[in-house]
């Protein structure tokens, strides 16, 4: 990988982060429509060596096995941890949301597929992990590769800066899972997008129970 690729990647992340900060501060009303386009188009424009691959959205059997295993664990254990933190530790009240509220939560989660899951996975996993850092395949911690680790660090940092909220850096941890899904699927972001979507929907639903 040449210096031009790294320069293009750095410029892409800089533009994306600055644009996100400005749009979030100003509450630009079209940000949910324009920003996803920026995430996808920018690396294609700035990095001439990056080409769209057909298999980037193709499912795979290995990816499916990992997706089902991890998704099952998340569905079983995450709600318990979520409620323990927000109700027991933070002191919020538990409440039963209406059917309309639950439907709205699912709708928001599905909307996030277009405005967050697909563009973010395309940029961070499809571009950074599998193109910019593709040669960094050595294992660092267990099954975590260097390219996954680097991408996840950037994922957390960009989220923290973009939203001006240090707690957003915690996205580093789910990012490691997104990276694993992509690696197991030979570079496809299909299951990382699917898990990203599942996580968003589950989070929106759980928030409906917090008063």
Q: What is the helix content?
A: over 70%
User: Strand pairing plus helix content: what structural class?
Assistant: mainly alpha
Rounded Rg: 18 Å
By DSSP (H or I, 4+ residues per run), the number of helices equals 7
Distance between the termini: 50 Å
Shape: globular
Main sheet: which strands, in order across? Answer: 1-2
Into how many domains do the coordinates divide?
1
Order of helices and strands: HHHHEEHHH
Number of strands: 2
Q: Please state roughly what percent of the residues sit in beta strands, choosing from under 5%, 5-15%, 15-25%, 25-35%, 35-45% or over 45%.
A: under 5%
Mean pLDDT: 90
Largest sheet: 2 strands, antiparallel
Unreliable residue runs: none
Structure notes:
It is a single chain. The chain has 211 residues and is mainly α. The chain contains seven helices and two strands; from the N terminus they run ααααββααα. It has one domain. Helix content is 72%, strand content 2%.
